[in-house]
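Q: Is it fine to ask for two folds in a single conversation?
A: Yes, each is treated on its own. Send the first.
Q: Here.
A: Result:
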Amino acid sequence: MADHGLNLHSFDRARLRSRGRQNRDAGLARQYRKPIVIAILICGDFAAALATISCARLPAQMIGLPWQAPQHIGALLVVLMFFVFGLYGGSGPGPYERFRQRTVGLAAFAVIWTIATLPSHSVPHFVIVQAATAAGLLLAGHYVETAIRALLIHLDLWNAPTVLVGAADRCRELVRFLERKPELGLKPVGWIRADDDSSKVVSLPLPVFGITADLNRVRPCAEVEVAIFATAAELAAVERSSGVFASTCCFILLEDIDNIQGPLVRTHALGTTIGIEIRRNLCSWQSRMFKRMFDILLALPLALVILPVVGLAALLIKLIDPGPAFYIQKRVGRHGRTLEMLKLRTMYTNSERLLEEHLNRDPQARAEWQRFFKLRNDPRILPVVGNFLRRSSVDELPQLWNVISGDMSLVGPRPLPAYHAEQLDTNFQPLRASVLPGITGLWQVSSRSDGDLETLQTEDLCYIHNWSPWLDFYILLQTVPAVLRAKGAR
């Protein structure tokens, strides 16, 4: 026992030394978090741009186009454009805003690069190749950044140290939200409490730096990169005490106003006041026409490509369970009309009876069904092929016909069964029914089936109020990793 104790003591000292080194390394990483993040993002963008431009050189030379400009010069120009348009700030913005900035930066790069390398002949072919190169740069850069962001979140380097200023109830909601959305790049590390806060019991899992009424005595928050203020009163108080935060600290003011949820909220200077523009993009006929053209141009070629996949899946379904391989599911469509949504069958033909028997036997399953209207262990699913089709979303591919016929869109709120749609807020139901439902949407790429009705309503409301072509394209790109991960698929 004595020897055993000595061994343990020796092991503990080694472990403490190791832990000390790890803490010092972690401290250095956090101290230089911003330059580390910027350097990694630049390296990722440079590598993705260099690989894409190098791959584009081969088809250009195959059709006889000159390619004299060095690839590394083009890759450096891409990085420079991203720097100009604000992608390398070291904290934020969110994924959708970054995608928009990336797109604008690549558009600027494409114009500059095309003018600088324009040959004297075969100009149309050269412009087509350059446009394809820009599209490849967008896809490669977006997915490389997605992987880098996931790695940096895992290493606790992506999120900027953030202090919250305001009342406990508001800040508590914000803490929960930011914990659910680490991709936004904000990590609460402290709280400055409102002096008129009526909360007697503080339940925030954050250290209290002080109160807003006594900000002059608050210890300077040198490591804080972002400060979020619940109201304009707290922001005005902090501005009178410039020593609290570093000069490089970013200030964010929250306004809890319904219908203002989007990443592209526009502000207008109205004298000494600020006006916030509340948009309804999907209500204009121009937006609807553009969205319809976008759907047709993508859905027609996609339908031809996936036709063999759908045919093979239909054959497997019929081999496992005799009956029709396709079925029409009635959902609530635009303006509340019944939508006949086409899907590959992934359940037994007597699925309703199987569901009812299972819910009667298992009270926990009934509670899960009443909350999500889905089951993790669903007895109706066909063995092997059923789960695969659902988790891979292959069963949804026939809905491209609904898109082509004009009953659905590629992106939009997911069409729900009537019993499901009736559970939504009565004020929200008409708004949701005012737009075309989609094959994929913001809810699918963020929460999918893991989100309850409240989450679904929040995500759909955000999409409807803040629609843009950028948002549709971003959601389509995010659908690919969401399907590959099969997160929340049931």
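Q: Second one now.
A: Result:
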Amino acid sequence: MSITKRIFDILPDGKVIDIYKLTGKGDAYVEILTYGGIIRSIVVPDKFGNMGDVLVGFESHKDYLETADAYYGALIGRVANRIAGASFELNGTTYDVAKNDGQNHLHGGFIGFNSKIWNAKIVDDSLELSIISEDGEENYPGRLEVTVVYKFSRNNTLSIIYNAVSDKDTVVNMTNHAYFNLSGHDFGSIYDHTFQLDADTYTVSDKYCTPTGEIAKVEGTLMDFRTPKRIGDGLMQDTIDADMIAGGGYDHNFVLNKPLNSYKKIGTLSEDIKGRYMDVFTDKPGIQLYTGNFIHGDTVGKDGCVYKRRGALCLETQFYPDAVHHPEWPSPILRANEKYKYTTSFSFGVSK
């Protein structure tokens, strides 16, 4: 195991963005930027023994800035996903947050964690990123101290450990917005990927992709991934299935079948062309499947690759979207001086 650092980019104001390379077994590695805590690359072997990058990413800060509305590979906070009406009440006080998704609040606001340059240090075999989100930032209460640890193990498992503590009651729901294509970031489509997820139910959304409050069974719907299913089978019905129309494909939160706060394997993404699979582990109660429905067809990424619509997908572990308005759901409220700590891992392998 080794971690090295180099300069990724220098901003006009002289600020430096570093890139850290976390090397695992053999030639496998992960690249992390201090800008946005972005995962830029994940290079792992395929069934033929060839190495390949399975993550969408870019060559410069300017490229990330121009595609900021897609949150490529970034850490998301304070609150991932949507808050309906861009407002919530906490301890009798109403907090109005940014309306950056129509009338709703999305992924932390105009200047979320994805827009910050994080402090970084190497601790043993891990990369530790940290920021302070001041009281009132994006109108959230509390001075929030945030630390996110990235660790890439010899069995090609990338773990993300989220830590936070606030001096006031606040709301926190962090995730990462990595876009995966296990056939290779430059392959062009995730239609032939197969997905299996341990979830009997999902949160039904309205036309703005915001939960209605209903939790419905996946049985008999396109949301049923309890047994492995080809992603493209559902995407082909994006204009005729009510669940698929609002997000132009999959953009849904699933309720995971596990006890609250228990860490376990919850699903597997796989593909047959290169034979890679990715097991997902988390202690969060939900996960958002987003199939890159709004990727611009002219987006130029690493190695001059042009990323196409549905050329990659996200698996965002989280509290359910808009949970702050649904007290019956697992709560994203973080009480003063309590510790927020959650872990998500992506473990890569090859089929035999």
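Q: Anything structural to flag on that second result?
A: Two points. The first strand starts at residue 2 and ends at 10. The chain has three helices and 29 strands.
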